[in-house]
Write a structure and sequence with these properties.
Distance between the termini: 49 Å
Largest sheet: 8 strands, antiparallel
Helix content: 25-40%
Structural class: alpha+beta
Order of helices and strands: EEHHHHEEEEEEEEHHEHHHEEEHEE
Strand order of the largest sheet: 1-4-5-6-2-8-7-3
Strand content: 15-25%
Number of strands: 16
Number of helices: 10
Radius of gyration: 26 Å
Length: 486
C-alpha cells in the first residue's frame, strides 16, 4: 500500500488542482455537513468582528490575531471545538486573502460578503492535515482529522505533493474533495501549430476561423427535463407561499423534496455544460499554436434591463432571456480554462478588443454596420465578401490578434496577468469610484457601493454617534451573536 504524505517546502506553491468525487458514509456525511456550517459561521463571525473593530477603534484585525481568540472560543463552544483546528484557521486565512483581493485595484473581486446558509458548504484544510492512500487502480481514501478515512474515486493521479485540501458539497448533496498540488511543471515549448480565431456566440457555441461549420453545444437539458424543471419551480413557489401563510415560513418535507429535485436537475445541467467546455478548450489549446478570443466584459453584457422605479427599463424579458443564453455558454469559464491549458500545451492565448468584430469585413477590413444584414449573414458593402457572420467575426479576431503581436494592436483583459497570462495587457477599466476603501461598514448594503467613499472611509448610515444602531446593525444579527473575542 503506497502512502502519499503532504509535505515539501513551503517555497513550492500549488500549481495544479485535482478534484475527485468523495463517497463518505452517512455518519461521515452528517458530520461533514455540520463542519461546513461551522466554517460558514466562523467566516461570518470573523467578518463581523473585523467590521465592528474597525468601526469602533479604526484598527484592522488579521488572521493571526483572530486565531488567538479562536483558541479560547474552541474551549467555550462545543460545536466549534468539534471542528478540526486547522479548518477555522484556513477560513481566517482565506478571509485575509479576500481582503487583499479587494484592496488590489487590479483584481475584480468585491468586498467580502457574509455567507448564507444556502451557500455551498466548504471545509478548507492545509496539506499537512490530510493523507492520501491509494487502495486500487480507481479508488483511494483520504484521512481527515477527527473523521478518519473517507473513500474517493481516483479518476486521475495526483501527480505531486499536496499543498492544500478542500471538501465541498454541491447543491445536489454530492461531496467532492479538491487538492492543491505542486507538480513542478513549467510552461511547455511552443508547439508550432497553426493559429486560430474563435468567436464565442449564443446561438452557436463557438465558430473557428479555420472551420466551415460551427461548434454546437448540445442542450444542457432535454425538452422533458425543461418541462419538469418548470413544473418543479412552479410547485416550489406554491409551496413557499403555503409555508409563509400557514406555517410561519417553516419548510415542509414535500417542499424539501421539491428543492432537492430542482438541485438535481441544475447539477446535471452544470455537469453537461462543464463537460463540453473542457472538451472545447482542450481541443483549442492542444491543436493550435495561437488561440485568439474576444476580451468580453461578461458582467457588463449580462446586466439586467429592469432599470429603476423612476426610469424603468424596456424589453426586460427579452434581455433576461439573452442573459441566460450568454451565461449558459460560460465565456468567462472558457477564457479561464484557456489561460492555463494554453501554457500546458505550448500554445498562446491572445485577447483582442471585441468592438466592431461583427461589423468588420474579414477580407478587406472595412467596417460598416450595414454589412451585417441579419443575425447569421454578412455581406461586405465594399468588396461584396459574403460569409457567415460568426465565421467572419472569428477571422477578424484572428487578424487583430496577429496585428497585436506585432505591436499595432492591444489585447488582454482588465485583470492583467492574473486572468490573461499571455497576450498584451491593456490599461485597467476605470472604476466607478476613484479608489477602494479600506473597510466599508456594510458590504451587503447599497450604501457601500456608492461613490461617496472615494475620499476614504466614511461613517455608515447605520452608525450614530459611534454606536451601532439597535435595530439596524452591521450584520443584521442580534447582539448575542457569538464572537471570536471581545
Amino acid at each position: 500500500m503506497k502512502v502519499k504524505r503532504a509535505g515539501g517546502s513551503v517555497k513550492d506553491p500549488a500549481d495544479a488542482g485535482r478534484k475527485y468525487r468523495l463517497h463518505p458514509t452517512s455518519q461521515q456525511a452528517e458530520r461533514l455537513n455540520n463542519w461546513g456550517h461551522t466554517c460558514r459561521a466562523v467566516w461570518n463571525v470573523a467578518l463581523e468582528q473585523r467590521l465592528y473593530v474597525y468601526q469602533q477603534r479604526r484598527t484592522y484585525l488579521r488572521a493571526d490575531e483572530q486565531c488567538r481568540y479562536l483558541t479560547q472560543a474552541r474551549h467555550d463552544l462545543d460545536w466549534l471545538g468539534d471542528l478540526p483546528s486547522q479548518a477555522p484557521q484556513q477560513v481566517l486565512r482565506h478571509l485575509d486573502q479576500a481582503y487583499e483581493n479587494f484592496w488590489n485595484v487590479d483584481h475584480p473581486a468585491g468586498f467580502p460578503r457574509f455567507k448564507k446558509r444556502t451557500s455551498r458548504l466548504v471545509i478548507p484544510l492545509p496539506g499537512q492535515a490530510v493523507r492520501v492512500t491509494k487502495l486500487s487502480r480507481k479508488w483511494a481514501c483520504v484521512r481527515i482529522p477527527k473523521l478518519g478515512e473517507v473513500k474517493f474515486r481516483l479518476t486521475r493521479p495526483l501527480g505531486g505533493s499536496i499543498k492544500a485540501a478542500s471538501i465541498r458539497r454541491d447543491g445536489a448533496g454530492r461531496w467532492y474533495v479538491s487538492f492543491g498540488v505542486h507538480t513542478g511543471k513549467t510552461a511547455a515549448l511552443p508547439n508550432g501549430r497553426r493559429p486560430v480565431g474563435v468567436d464565442f456566440g449564443v446561438k452557436q457555441a463557438a465558430y473557428l476561423s479555420d472551420e466551415t461549420a460551427p461548434r454546437l453545444m448540445r442542450r444542457t437539458l432535454t425538452e422533458g427535463e425543461e418541462r419538469r424543471l418548470t413544473g418543479l419551480e412552479r410547485r416550489r413557489e406554491r409551496q413557499l407561499r403555503e409555508a409563509k401563510s400557514h406555517r410561519g415560513g417553516k419548510y415542509s418535507n414535500r417542499l424539501r423534496r421539491t428543492l432537492r429535485a430542482i438541485a438535481e436537475l441544475k447539477a446535471r445541467q452544470a455537469r453537461r455544460r462543464a463537460d463540453f467546455t473542457h472538451k472545447l478548450t482542450t481541443d483549442l489549446a492542444k491543436n493550435h499554436g495561437l488561440v485568439a478570443i474576444e476580451d468580453l466584459r461578461v458582467k457588463q453584457m449580462t446586466r439586467s434591463a429592469r432599470g429603476t422605479r423612476a426610469e424603468p427599463g424596456t424589453h426586460v424579458a427579452q434581455k433576461a432571456g439573452l442573459n441566460r443564453a450568454v451565461l449558459d455558454n460560460v465565456p468567462g469559464e472558457r477564457r479561464r480554462q484557456l489561460a492555463y491549458k494554453c501554457l500546458a500545451y505550448g500554445s498562446e492565448l491572445v485577447l483582442v478588443q471585441p468592438a466592431r468584430t461583427s461589423q468588420t469585413c474579414g477580407a478587406c477590413n472595412h467596417w460598416d454596420p450595414a454589412s451585417r444584414i441579419s443575425r447569421d449573414a454578412f455581406v461586405c458593402t465594399r468588396c461584396g465578401h459574403t460569409d457567415d457572420a460568426d465565421h467572419n467575426a472569428s477571422v477578424v479576431i484572428l487578424s487583430r490578434a496577429v496585428r497585436g503581436r506585432t505591436g499595432t494592436d492591444t489585447a488582454a483583459g482588465h485583470c492583467g496577468e492574473q486572468h490573461a497570462p499571455t497576450g498584451h495587457a491593456r490599461p485597467a477599466m476605470p472604476r466607478t469610484r476613484a479608489g477602494r476603501t479600506r473597510e466599508p461598514l456594510n458590504p451587503s448594503s447599497t450604501v457601500a457601493q456608492q461613490p461617496s467613499y472615494t475620499e476614504g472611509y466614511k461613517e455608515s448610515w447605520q452608525v450614530n454617534a459611534g454606536r451601532m444602531s439597535k435595530n439596524k446593525r452591521v450584520s443584521g444579527h442580534p447582539r448575542d451573536t457569538p464572537k471570536l473575542g471581545p
